[in-house]
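Continuing the batch. This is chain 6 of the set; chains 1 through 5 are on the previous pages. Same settings as before, nothing changed between runs. Recording input and output for traceability.
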Amino acid sequence: MNYLIADMKVTDWEQVCSIYIEGIATGVATFETSAPAWEKWDAGHLQKLRLVARGSEGVVLSWAALSPVSDRCVYGGVAEVSVYVGEQGRGRGVGRALLGALIEESERNGIWTLQAGVFPENAASIKLHLRGGFREVGRRERIGKLNGVWRDTLLLERRSGNVGTI
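Output for chain 6:
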């Protein structure tokens, strides 16, 4: 499959949001039950660390972005990963390439730790992150409710071998 990884633009939001809604519909991608407006999503994600994989004719197949885990200075190099692969891109290596590009870009921007909270039932996401160099740190039991049901998440983490080592 041919695709190009590029910075996400504001004009990508409609397609990015559609992929996000696909993820929400699975019930294993996020605690969110609806997609936010662009302004809310934009405010919650790091400006420089948003990527998309574009297929033919510029169609967004997948997106990935980082969110700060805290506004405390000490956590300035720690970010939470979001990776969503649309139906058209699944099983074709797009997610792996996009996560790899996001990891490289995060290190260029001084991020030393990436973390992801993944539902244990989301086998594809767990596999993607493990292949990307993440490790399971632990299980957060009953961390939040989705549609009134308590859910666990696995906490996955990737430490940079280049940033924050000294």
